[in-house]
Amino acid sequence: MDVAPDWLCAAHTTLTFPGPHAVPDTEGPLRGVIGDRRFEAHPTVRKDGSVAWWLVDDTDHQLAREALHVERERTAFLAKASNVLLSSLNLGRCMDVTAQMAAESLADAALAIAPPRGHRLSVVTCLRGGSPVLSTLAVAPDDVPGLGEALRGFPPVPSRWIDPATAPAWMVPEGFGPIGSIVITPLPGHGVAAGALILLRKTENAAFSDEEETFARLFAARAGAAMSAARLYAEQTAITDVLMQELLPPTLHHISGVDFAGRYRPSAEHERIGGDFYDVHPAAVEGEASLVSLGDVCGKGLEAAVLTGKIRNTLHALLPLADDHQRMLSLLNTALLSSHHTRFATLVLASAVRRGNAVDLKLTSGGHPSPLIIRSDGSVEEADTNGTLIGALPDITASTATASLAPGESCVLYTDGITEAKGGPMGDALFGEDRLKRALAGCAGMPAEGIVEHVQMLAAQWLGNRPHDDMAVVVISAPRTHHLSAVNGRTRGRFTA
User: Fold this and answer.
1) CA–CA separation, 264 and 276 (whole Å)
2) Considering only Cβ atoms within 10 Å of each terminal Cβ, which end of the chain, N or C, has fewer?
3) Chain segment 398-454, per-residue pLDDT in tens
4) How far apart are CA 226 and CA 93, in angstroms?
């Protein structure tokens, strides 16, 4: 008993001299430490009351169990990190999560650093138990051993090579205290580094082991992939927004004494562009006609939108020929036939110019529904123009119609998404040209903006929640004139638009 360890002596006493205050027997084998080894003790009570103990060296098994437990915890942590990081495509959110998870499970504090922009670094700092804080610093990464290399994607420097005393003040969170050890590892991205991760431990805690550094690199690989994906998404979104601005229909307004209004509704609610388009090109010289174009490309979505962009750019280049609608349509047809696109389009051109109080129009259709003219008495006329599709045949034909709008009268250009909208009470009836004409008859005297909104509202009500084609409407109006005053009591007075 003098050489036996205390844990074995206590268990032996309990078995040999049981009493009311004896320690009860526990489930499973008795375990304890002798020297630097771990043992399992199994008792055998003999007939004479003595106890024989069989000791089994369990050191290796216990170490294996502990290592398995640690690996399970780390695997669970990495799985959680992957789920949380990849659930967001916001770069700032990814940096916050990276710093916070690293501080909670890998270190006493963590810093997630984005690649430098010029001479500035975006740094997210997080203390264990705290919240991530973003700061933008004008610092030189190469002044920190291993940081410049990590931001360039080079392998990490072992923590034992980094002297904590050399850490600059910006790396040390407020109230952290002296640094005991530092790990700096790259955040691998897609082809280029997504940033760097810095882990800090206090002096009272153990330094990072080789196994912990390896585990930190595994975490960094997942964080870097998420940050890289978020950065790529942000770049693609920025590019898409720039390109989208060029493809979106313009906002129309009053130009050279003529009122213009337009609306576009894509076929899918989640899309912003599609196959319908319109433009108004103001006259280069005051007194000349402005050119309006409205068209419909075969198809929907992004592919159709790309072709609408080409058509709009081509028409813009042909503006010097704006007085000759047939010539413009013929050159546009040649341009589409020579491209790799297999789609065609319908198009209507309208030239509008203010002449006194009226607006003179010249209208030409290339396979498109004829424009409708709303007279002041409520009648609706169909412009006498027609032609062939654009981009389908080597040669096209088109006829041009002329019309004049008195003050308060309007001309409506529209795509077949309006008339072919399927819905109504039974859900299978087309909105149709007749219904559109009746609706426009009630718009006599309305401003251009009001007519556009009324047509779009009626089409939307007719559709309900049913699928539909792209829809576009443009209205050209001659503004009403208002009597201001008489001159000398005899004349007709002055008018303003």
Assistant:
1) 8
2) N
3) 999 999 999 999 999 999 999 999 988 888 899 999 999 999 999 999 999 999 999
4) 10
Judge whether 413 and 400 are in contact, CB under 8 Å: no
Amino acid letter, 73? E
DSSP structure class, residue 387: B
Find, among 263, 267, 260, the residue nearest to 291 by Cα: 260
Closest C-alpha to 294, from 166, 156, 471: 471
**What ranges in 41-146 are assigned the alpha helix state H?**
59-86, 91-105
Residue-level length of the chain: 497
> Which amino acid, residue 136?
T
Query: Does residue 287 come out as left (phi exceeding 0), alpha (psi in the -120 to 50 range) or beta?
Result: left
The CA-atom distances, in angstroms, between 434 and each of 215, 240, 243, 372, 411 are 72, 39, 38, 11, 16
Contact 197, 182 (CB under 8 A): no
Residue the block writes with tokens 């969170």? 173
Q: Which pTM value belongs to this model?
A: 0.61
pLDDT tens per residue, range 164-215: 988 999 999 998 999 999 999 999 988 788 999 999 999 999 899 998 999 9
DSSP secondary structure string, 116-172?
PBTTBEEEEEEETTS--EEEEE---GGGSTTHHHHHTTPPPBPGGGS-GGG--GGGS
Tokens at residue 195, please?
A: 């940033």
On the CB side of 33, how many CA atoms lie within 13 Å of its CA?
4
Max CA pair span of the chain: 143
